[in-house]
Each structure stands twice: as C-alpha cells, then as structure tokens.
Design brief:
Elements lengths: L1 H11 L3 H52 L17 E2 L14 H7 L34 E7 L2 E8 L8 H5 L17 H5 L3 E4 L2
Antiparallel strand pairs: 1-2, 2-3, 3-4
C-alpha cells in the first residue's frame, strides 16, 4: 500500500523538463511583450496628439470668429505676446511668454482645458525627454501664424513618434521671415524642432 501512495504522489508532480518548458514559454511571452509594448505606447501617444491638435484647431477657428484674428501680434499670448511659438508655455516656463496661448483660448471661452501639454508632459524645448532645439525632436505643441505664398495661414504642429521626419516639407510651411518674432532661420519647424505633423486652422 505504501508503494501505491508513493506512485500517486509522483504522478501529481511536475518533471524538471516540464518546468523548464513552462519557464521557456513564459520567457518567450515576456520577450514578445517587451518588444511590442513600446511601439503600442508610441501609437497611443500619437493618437492623443492628433486628437489634441484637432481640438486646438477648432479652438483657434472659434477664437478667430470671436476676435477676428488667429491670435496674432498684440494678443498678449505666446512668444512676446504675439501669438506664435510653444502653445502651452507661459510665464512660469519661459520669461518671454507673458501668457500661454492655451490659457488665452480658455479665457476666450473656446476651450475648457488649458493643459494642452504633449502626452509626455512637455510644453517647450526644455531638453531631456522633451527634445532639444536643433537636436532631438521636441515633444511639445507649437502654433505658427504666417504667410504662405503671401496668404495668411495658421498651423498647429507637433512631432509624432511613429512618423518619419519631413524637414523640407515642414520648413516650407511659411514664407521665409513671415512668422512674428521668428527669424528666417528659426522658423524651420522641421529641421530645428523635429515637427513632422501639422494641422491647418480653417
């Protein structure tokens, strides 16, 4: 009878080979998740950026109907108060931004949220994870009102992680020197900031 109990206990256990197989399968699954998850995160952030930019374009269009301009020179918003530059940058971020454009949209009653930061929580080219001017792509929203073929136009720009760079195309969005407070060189949104996605405000 003792022999039969011993056999029963042995039959209920796992062999070393079976345990090794389970460990290998778990390792393979972890490897697959590790490879795929960062790509999934990037796609999710890019989708959020596109959604934010669509809301911002709608907000600026509503602002233009209300104020008869797309938040331009003398608005008190954006870089030097002239309505261009980093969308959410304000006095606490950069001294040259008297008020963030996102705040101005909220004050005009065209947007509820003033916290239009990139999904990586960036508001301007601060270095590190946010990117660096003329270095790594900057993960923050920009707004540019300028001339294109001498016609006024307004863009919302960002960098999508899963899209290739389009420096030449994005650099040519505005006529040279037509962006308030930006020189011909500094308005190269693609080359200088890595912007590769934009929405036209209509």
């Amino acid at each position: 009878m003792g022999i039969q109990l011993g056999k029963r206990r042995y039959a209920l256990g796992f062999t070393v080979v079976e345990i090794l197989i389970v460990i290998v399968v778990i390792g393979i699954l972890i490897g697959i998740v590790t490879l795929l998850y960062p790509g999934y995160q990037k796609r999710t952030r890019d989708a959020e950026r596109k959604s934010d930019m669509a809301q911002l374009a709608t907000g600026f269009a509503a602002y233009a109907l209300q104020k008869n301009n797309f938040m331009t020179s003398g608005s008190g918003c954006g870089l030097y108060g002239n309505g261009n530059g980093w969308l959410s940058a304000g006095p606490s971020d950069l001294a040259v931004y008297p008020k963030s454009m996102a705040t101005c949209l909220q004050e005009a009653g065209v947007l509820r949220d003033t916290d239009f930061k990139d999904p990586l929580n960036c508001v301007y080219d601060s270095g590190g994870v946010c990117g660096t001017y003329r270095g790594t792509p900057v993960q923050a929203y920009m707004k540019a009102t300028c001339l294109k073929s001498s016609v006024p136009i307004t863009y919302i720009l960002s960098h999508l992680e899963n899209e290739p760079r389009k420096d030449a195309e994005v650099d040519a969005l505005c006529d040279p020197g037509s962006v308030s407070d930006f020189t011909t060189v500094s308005q190269k949104w693609g080359t200088d900031y890595g912007m590769n996605y934009y929405v036209t405000v209509k």
